[in-house]
Write a structure and sequence with these properties.
The complex is a heterodimer of chains A (212) and B (346).
Chain A (H helix, E strand, L loop, with lengths): L1 E6 L4 E8 L7 E9 L4 H15 L7 E7 L5 H18 L3 E4 L10 E6 L5 E6 L5 E8 L10 E3 L4 H4 L3 E3 L4 H13 L30
Parallel strand pairs in A: 1-4, 4-5, 6-9, 9-10
Antiparallel strand pairs in A: 1-2, 2-3, 6-7, 7-8
Chain B lengths: L6 E6 L4 E8 L2 E9 L1 H4 L7 H23 L8 E7 L3 H18 L3 E5 H7 L2 H4 L6 E6 L4 E8 L3 E7 L5 H11 L7 H8 L26 H16 L6 H27 L3 E5 L6 H14 L2 E3 L3 H4 L3 H14 L22
Parallel strand pairs in B: 1-4, 4-5, 6-9, 9-10
Antiparallel strand pairs in B: 1-2, 2-3, 6-7, 7-8
Helix pairs in contact in B: 2-3, 4-12, 6-8, 6-9, 7-9, 8-9, 9-10
Classes of the chains: A alpha/beta (212), B alpha/beta (346).
The complex binds zinc ion (ZN).
């Protein structure tokens, strides 16, 4: 089955086309990583088109779509999630969501990415690659990450530990999605991993306009 | 309904309404809506992040409802249109990304369109082709604009707009002062029916001889209402909610209709379209009808349901663009929260 995988949880948008078979590692046929910053909405659809062309496939050939659900800065994250949902809906195929951090690096590791507001999104993985803690969002000073740490290398100093630069990959997305791809009945609703509540506070009591 | 006319799917997510509409030619087939309004109520205004989360959640189910109501399938769609701006960036992006994905998956052209022009276009679904040029007045919680529209598909000219609050914002703020629920338009409209519009002489903003003839200002009016109510409260007197609502509403619709009629007269245009959420206000509709009749202007107002934000208005504009042979949007279409009104599509 051909699977389209995409992720917009970090400033690098990732799109891959893979041949997936139950039990075996996915074979990535084409992949693009675009440092698109806050231009995910502009660049994602053209990148999907380019990856399909590079892999010699058409939309109609796809059997499933995989998307990262974050955590990641919300505005960009939603672009990927809604794109995956819409592509899959239009083609009548399943869409599978995975934790984006699961798709960064492999084996025993701590993954840390930029959560803005001087915080990091992080998760820890055991030797078999399974997530044992997180995803969560915290201030670097409040964490003592277990090495090796991979992800956003800009946080090395604040985390007080070496961070090997690593990004979401199509292979990582496919690996994280394998259980759900193998058992479509297990596919969960596509809900982004926001980890924070919306910033919104009810307004105070009505202010007087005539008295300060 | 001629099947040879294009079937256009429209996406609207510029504020708190997830609107998905389907039109064939200028015929409305469906208009599915999901709103996050209730979630914003306790904040007294739309919270962008809450709206964006709700758009994502509602997107696919609302698309399904639109197709089910129209009795057509995704594979029947000939073109897709989406509000590309103006509006809340995070909210717009959910609609733009979804529309781009459906267009890619269905292999149909995509038109990123201007939300304000779509408010004008929606009237064609009920009242047929617009006379062009027409004057359009768009009044809502997010915008208050007077436009000259020589050609809805490519020539929309701004005449004036609010210099502070949008008309709908003034309704929201005054409702709050009066202890009425959010959004403020409908409860003020209801309360005003039992009030005397002439009971309190609230100010008419920007109506002096040297003021910009087509610009609006509602901030001073809002403050005047708050001052008046507070003075009553401090004096220990009851606040006549119906009278305040009626007098405030009259001040707003007096200015709106006077300026709209003047825009028609000054530009030699005898057609006026009113749209946007505030166009659902019953007093605005009545006074506009009265003044247009007196001035020999043909007034067109969509039914209240289509005045507020919806997906059908975007599909209606998309349909006009397809028919006019306007080029679809480039593959790197994005959202522009401040999209200028003279950009009909991009
Ligand atoms: Zn609107």
């Amino acid at each position: 089955m051909l699977v389209l995988a995409l992720d917009t949880a970090t400033p690098t948008l990732v799109v891959g086309l893979a041949r997936w078979t139950d039990g075996g590692p996915a074979e990535v046929l084409a992949e693009r990583a675009v440092a698109s910053g806050n231009r995910h909405a502009e660049l994602l659809a053209p990148t999907v088109r380019a990856v399909l062309a590079a892999g010699g496939a058409a939309m109609a050939d796809l059997g499933a779509v995989v998307t990262g659900l974050g955590p990641g800065p919300y505005t960009g994250l939603r672009v990927g999630v809604v794109t995956a949902a819409a592509l899959a809906d239009a083609r009548g195929i399943p869409v599978v969501g995975v934790c984006s951090l699961d798709a960064i690096g492999d084996g025993a590791r701590t993954v840390a990415t930029d959560a803005r507001r001087k915080e990091v999104y992080w998760a820890r993985y055991g030797a078999d690659g399974a997530r044992v803690a997180g995803p969560a969002v915290d201030r670097p000073a409040d964490l003592t990450p277990t090495p090796p740490v991979v992800g956003d290398a800009a946080f090395a100093e604040r985390l007080g530990v070496a961070v090997t630069a690593a990004e979401v990959t199509a292979a990582g997305l496919l690996r994280a999605a394998a259980p759900q791809l193998a058992d479509p009945s297990s596919v969960a609703a596509l809900v982004p991993l926001y980890l924070r509540r919306p910033d919104a506070v009810p307004p105070p009591q009505r202010k007087s306009v005539t008295q300060p | 309904m001629p099947a040879d006319q294009p079937l256009v799917l429209g996406f609207e997510t510029s504020c708190d309404e997830t609107g998905i509409g389907l039109v064939r030619g200028q015929t409305l087939l469906s208009d599915a809506l999901a709103t996050s309004m209730a979630e914003h109520e306790r904040f007294g205004g739309v919270v962008p992040e809450i709206a964006s989360r709700a758009h994502l959640e509602a997107m696919v189910p609302t698309v399904h409802r639109a197709f089910a109501e129209a009795g057509v399938q995704a594979s029947d769609v000939d073109a897709i249109a989406v509000t590309s701006g103006p509006g809340l960036t995070g909210a717009l992006l959910v609609g733009v990304a979804a529309a781009k994905a459906y267009a890619l998956a269905l292999d149909v052209p995509l038109y990123g369109v201007n939300h304000l022009a779509a408010h004008v276009a929606v009237d064609e679904l009920e009242h047929g082709r617009l006379a062009e040029p027409t004057i359009a007045m768009l009044v809502s919680g997010g915008h208050s604009s007077l436009l000259l529209v020589p050609d809805l598909t490519q020539d929309v000219q701004p005449l004036g707009q609010t210099i502070d609050d949008a008309a709908g914002e003034a309704f929201d703020k005054v409702a709050r002062v009066l202890g009425l629920p959010f959004p403020g338009g409908p409860p003020i409209d209801r309360a005003a029916r039992d009030g005397d519009p002439a009971s309190i002489p609230f100010p008419r903003g920007l109506t002096g001889p040297r003021d910009a003839p087509y610009d609006f200002s509602f901030s001073g009016l809002k403050t005047a209402v708050a001052r008046w109510v507070e003075a009553r409260e401090r004096a220990g007197e009851p606040v006549p909610v119906a009278d305040v609502a009626a007098a405030f509403q009259e001040a707003v619709v007096d200015v709106l209709t006077a300026k709209a009629v003047r825009a028609c007269r000054d530009n030699g245009v005898d057609h006026l379209v009113i749209g946007g959420g505030v166009a659902a206000n019953s007093r605005l509709r009545a006074l506009a009808a009265e003044r247009c009749a007196a001035a020999g202007i043909v007034l067109r107002t969509p039914s209240p349901r289509l005045c507020t934000d919806n997906g059908a208005m975007v599909a209606a504009l998309g349909s006009r663009l397809v028919e006019a042979g306007i080029a679809p949007s480039a593959a790197d279409l994005g959202a522009d929260s401040a999209l200028p009104i003279d950009v009909v599509s991009r």
